[in-house]
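User: For documentation purposes, I need each entry recorded in a consistent format: the amino acid sequence on its own, followed directly by the corresponding structure tokens. There are two entries in this batch. Please keep commentary to a minimum and don't merge the entries.

Assistant: Recorded as requested. Entry 1:
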Amino acid sequence: MKKISIFTLAILVFHVGTFSQTLDEKLKEIDDYANTVANTWKGPGMAIAVVKDDKVVLAKGYGSRELGKNQPVNENTLFAIASNSKAFTTASIAILVDEKKMSWDDKVTKYLPDFKVFDPWVTNELTIRDLVTHRVGLDTFSGAYANIILPTAIVNTIIFLNIGDLHVLRGCQHYQLPTR
């Protein structure tokens, strides 16, 4: 019995010691690791932001904006992250759905009352689920958004798209398919 008590005490002491690292120590560890990665791989730059309790506790850039050039990345550098933003957005929505703060089947206009697409009926029927499953009725790359940086510009552009091949809402799914 004494061996079990000593073993339990050792586990508790180790457990407390493992998680007693201060925020500053954790942030320094992240910063050191990011510097090591940047210096080892010598690839394009990166930026890291850490948010704790609704406050930014670390925002820093590492490396160069472009290989071979001496423009450093900082906390305000914009990156083309392609479809990663969809994963982040969908994960965030999933958390809100899990917390019962929204539903996959809520209408988009519930949260974006000014949102409009090419067809008034589609505007009224479009759900969060439709957006995240690529079944809005637009062909892949219909909007050619590669040069649009601001999300508001994307939303405003969708209204005015002149699209030849529209599909029925929820009638097909398009994502990264070859275009004609």
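Entry 2:
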Amino acid sequence: MLSLTLPLPTILMQSVLLLVTIAIEALVLRNKLNLTRKTSIEYSLSINLYSTVIGWLIFFLLPFSENKFLELNFVSFVYFNNFYIKPAEIWSIYQTILLSCVIFFFLICVIELKLLDILEALLQTSEEHKKDPKASGKPVVLKKRITVALLKTEPSKVSAIIMANGFSYTMILAILFLLQIG
């Protein structure tokens, strides 16, 4: 019989950190992209929820089977908040964590940037759609807007997303550090 163990403290911590992230990133998006408070919160909420789900899916789909050392340490950290390592191997796990954090930071930035573009494409109302209300419901128009959103990105959005993620990741690291020493 299979047993299911939920890492409830990890889920609760992820939820709290996600709330902090949404607040910080909404503030940066509002200031950098000149959005209203409501719009910036909605954008931040949407892109962070989707990027969190995508990030966890990517992480769990990575092939850990070749490296039992990483798998054992990840499970130990998620469930027990400490690493299962010998003192001689501690530098190896820290190098792996640092490299993973840098890769995940840029991966999440790209995911959030494209999610923001797609979200704006889905919500945009251009002048031609105001003139012709029938055109906005056509699948061809929606497909074209999403294709353009995937292929084209404004530089101001790139800098806003990187800055928002930088601030929110810094705050997350500070919170995690304070929890570890407290």
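Summary note for entry 2:
DSSP finds seven helices and no strands in the chain.
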